Amino acid sequence: MINPRIIFRLIHINWVLVFHGLDEIVLKTHLFRPIRFLAALSPYYWLRRRNEPRGVRIRKTLEDLGPIYVKFGQALSTRKDLLPDDIADELVKLQDRVPPFPNEVARRIIESELGMSIDAAFVDFDPSPLASASVAQVHTAKLHTGEDVVVKVLRPDIEDRIHSDIALLYELARFAERFWSDARRLRPLEVVAEFEKTTLDELDLVREAANAAKLRRNFENSDIIYVPEIHWPLSRQKVMVMERIQGIPVGEIEQLRAGGADFKLLAERGVEIFFTQVFRDNFFHADMHPGNIFVDLPAKYIAVDFGIVGSLSLSDQHYLAENFLAFFNRDYRKVARMHVESGWVPSSTRIEEFESAIRGVCEPIFEKPLRDISFGQLLLRLFQTARRFDMHVQPQLVLLQKTLLNIEGLGRQLYPELDLWQTAKPFLEKWFQERMGPKAKLNQLFAHFPELAQQLPEVPTLLYKALDNAAYAKQSSEAQTRELAELRKQMEAHHQSTQWMIFVSAALISAAIFFG
């Protein structure tokens, strides 16, 4: 039975859709067109907003529905190639211009978390938020030591809203598994579980601060990206204090152009940063929409908002690297074989057919700049191929796929002429050489040498014990063989005696009957 809270949430979603006039979009679809007239029976139909453009209505609907829906809109906002311009331009506002919550509430949360007044914590605190997003909003402040900082404050009561929406997603996933034939392949429950984990992690700002500190160490003294410093004494679960950065939002293309930004280098560095995080560090920023990325002119990135990060298992990392490299080399047979070996498609899949299907999807997009690639058409072909070969969704890779889409969308905005494949290929070849080449094997040997040297004095003793155990095992085996042979002889003799006794008994019984 469906939880009553979920029913009320569905009613609320329906009311928000009608209030903002989005019922028109739904009812114009082929499925609902025959029953459009029933909408007029709803009182909310007459309260809806009629005059605002559709992009504004969609944005406001997502804002009213809550953080999960805002994040969906943020992800879509990076894909202007998939949306009409009016909707895409409006969804960009979801990146850092979500309606803020009152300053008094923000002050109360900060003082409660820090256990001190605002004046005791900061020499100056701006009550007007610098930015407001789906999960938190940010205020500028100055520490008593003179450093300029930003104070990130979690939205009040956000946990309840997110838990409610995740419960709804679980119900929809269970419904899909019962009534949708593709559900087994798409694994909706596992996808929702992965989404739940990353979303709930985002509600702990101490965890986000730790993510920022790790990324900062990974790119310390880097020329291509800067990660601000965390002020740990003033960071708590619902409050995080971080160094204030100065940069131009990466989505402000005209401002970047006026400042002399190197767009080609920025696009190439974006790809390099992605592959460095995924393959060198195995720890990547997984929320790289334009609201979280700034530029220090001419071509250095500044990253903020580290609530969602991802990492891969070593096996997934290895398989992905090999798949990417085979893809860049157009070795579609290897790509097909790797998918089978990794279990991403059934073992019964015919390699030749799968190879041909992959070639049909990938070959048309090679040696083309991003501006000439129809990403919508590519996605459609990928979905068709996945369905045909029963390719299962890998929930652990959902974050990576989302991040790759963000990077590709960012590249479209900055430098549409970018050849994504040729930019990434040298990095992966270098990574493979460093991981798999002879020098890498020697480095691994040297890395383990102290451990081996520590165990070296014990080797003779261990060798003697191993030989002694082997000799003992051999003797035991020989003794067991002899015992089994003796037992077999005894059983054979017993068998013969039993047969003789049966014969004698039968003769005696026959004689008794004959002479009786």
Summarize the model shown.
59% of the residues lie in helices and 8% in strands. It has 516 residues and is α+β, with helices and mostly antiparallel strands.
Architecture overview:
The protein is of the alpha+beta class and 516 residues long. It contains 22 helices and 11 strands. It has helices at residues 4-19, 23-27, 54-65, 67-77, 85-91, 103-114, 118-121, 158-179, 183-186, 188-201, 205-218, 253-258, 263-281, 314-328, 332-341, 351-362, 375-388, 398-414, 420-436, 438-447, 449-455, 459-515, and strands at 124-125, 131-132, 136-142, 148-154, 225-226, 239-243, 248-249, 284-285, 293-296, 300-303, 309-310. The strands form 3 sheets. Strands 1, 2, 3, 4 and 6 form a 5-stranded antiparallel sheet that branches. It has a 4-stranded mixed sheet with strand order 5-10-9-7. It is globular and about 100 Å long. The N and C termini lie far apart (83 Å). The model has no long low-confidence stretch (mean pLDDT 79).
